[in-house]
Amino acid sequence: MARKATITQKEIVNAAFKITKKEGFEAITSRKLAAAAGCSTQPIFRIYENMDELKKDLYDKAAEFYLEFYDEYKKTHDVPFVDLGLAYIGFAEKYPHLFRLLFISHEGTEGKSMYDLVNGNSENVVREINRASSQGAANAQNLFMQMWIFIHGAGCMAVTGDYDLDEASSVKMLESAYMAFSR
Questions:
Q1: Which of 73, 95, 102, 84 lies closest to 159, judged by CA?
Q2: From the CB of residue 9, how many other CB atoms can be counted at a distance below 10 Å?
Q3: Could you tell me if 156 and 86 lie in one domain?
Q4: Which domain does 146 fall in, by range?
Q5: Do the domain assignments include residue 107?
Q6: How many angstroms separate the Cα of 182 from the Cα of each of 36, 146, 173?
Q7: Which tens digits make up the pLDDT trace of 29-52?
Q8: Fewer CB atoms inside 10 A, N or C side of the chain?
Q9: Of 159, 154, 157, 160, nearest to 173 (Cα)?
Q10: Tens digit of pLDDT for each residue in 83-116?
Q11: Number of compact structural domains in the chain
Q12: Are residues 40 and 80 in the same domain?
């Protein structure tokens, strides 16, 4: 009689998430994943045909993690896009491997854009664009695009270790960028 499978898809994804968070997705091997999940490689390949299938589920888990991070991030600034930028840069600094998976790599995204992820279920970007409009921004959509390029660049710099501004300096920089772009 065959032994009953005890490892679940969720447990495999959770193990892959832990490895990715610490070392990056590229560090995942079937053996390392099996060790982290506490099983042999057989259940992994019973659930997933290949690592690309796993990466799709891992991407979804990482996206949920980012949205929870953003939702829990303190939002105290009056200037639109500042809190969005601080959260994004903060995520890049704290979780560089997850940031790479979500915002730099296109693997596992299944047609989801960076905008879709950042906007989230709560329409975070839409809310910020509406704030900018209500504060008199002539073309808030265009302003968002300019700010987003700036914010994403800062996030990428944080991942590579080239971003060394403290929060107060980051706020000043984001506010200055907003004022410059809104002219």
A1: 95
A2: 14
A3: yes
A4: 63-181
A5: yes
A6: 49, 9, 14
A7: 999 999 999 999 999 999 999 888
A8: N
A9: 154
A10: 999 999 999 999 999 999 999 987 656 667 788 8
A11: 2
A12: no
